[in-house]
Design a protein that fits this description.
single chain, alpha+beta, 7-stranded antiparallel sheet, 4 helices, 14 strands, 18% helix
């Protein structure tokens, strides 16, 4: 009887360990409880974890919902902007398709519910992504971090990309992950940009060399993707109310 009990306990422990080993990482940040982080960029890029960590249609509270990440298996880009989810797909080296739907999944994703914003007029000397990162960092030293933000207005130029990884591709490095990625140049466009700022999540939901992760969508909703380069013409910045 004692031997049987020991065997049963070992089997139960083994099942629990097995379950825990495949569980996807989900973080609700203590300093800003509305921020939810699922999966990690570094695990996608270096470990090839391309499958779903979250089905977006399982997010129940869509009021004031903002979020971003790539589509599972890196076949597109995702953006939730004020409760509406947009999915972009490459159709050629100069065109894309943008759909509005929630029945899609992501290997990593960050999202938050924001219903009240502070509007800030950007100074005229804030024109690039680097300028913007520095301005937001200095402006929010007393704010809870990480946080979502958005920008609305004109860009004189922007480069966005949409992932388009060939089916069945194995990934073990960023170079492999970016196979099929297509870049699009925008000029003189009315846009909305949704972003997330953090100084502590490099490789999780921001790249290793940035505090920002941003997705851009044009006013007419015809183009959307991960924002790589930015030249601001006239935009307003929106930060969560303290």
């Amino acid at each position: 009887m004692i031997i049987k009990k020991v065997v049963i306990r070992l089997l139960v422990s083994g099942v629990l360990l097995s379950c825990n080993s495949v569980k996807k990482e989900t973080i609700s940040d203590d300093t800003y409880s509305d921020i939810i982080i699922v999966g990690a960029m570094k695990n996608v890029m270096w470990k090839g974890e391309l499958s779903s960590s979250i089905d977006l249609d399982t997010i129940s509270n869509k009021k004031g919902l903002y979020g971003l990440g790539p589509e599972s298996y890196l076949t597109g880009e995702l953006l939730i902007n004020n409760g509406q989810n947009y999915v972009s797909k490459v159709t050629s080296d100069s065109t894309m398709a943008v759909e509005k739907r929630f029945n899609v999944s992501a290997p990593f994703f960050v999202y938050a519910n924001i219903n009240e914003w502070d509007e800030i007029e950007l100074p005229s000397n804030i024109t690039t992504t680097q300028d913007l990162e520095k301005f937001i960092d200095q402006r929010t030293t007393e704010n809870k971090r990480p946080f979502a933000f958005k920008l609305i207005g004109n860009v004189s130029k922007a480069i966005i990309h949409v992932q388009n990884l060939p089916e069945g591709t194995k990934v073990s490095s960023p170079d492999e992950a970016h196979q099929g990625q297509t870049n699009y140049e925008l000029k003189n466009e009315e846009t909305e940009i949704v972003g997330f700022f953090s100084t502590k999540h490099k490789g999780v939901f921001t790249h290793h060399d940035s505090y920002l992760h941003m997705h851009l969508i044009t006013k007419d909703k015809s183009k959307m993707g991960h924002l790589d380069e930015l030249e601001i013409e006239n935009m307003k910045l929106y930060l969560p109310k303290k």
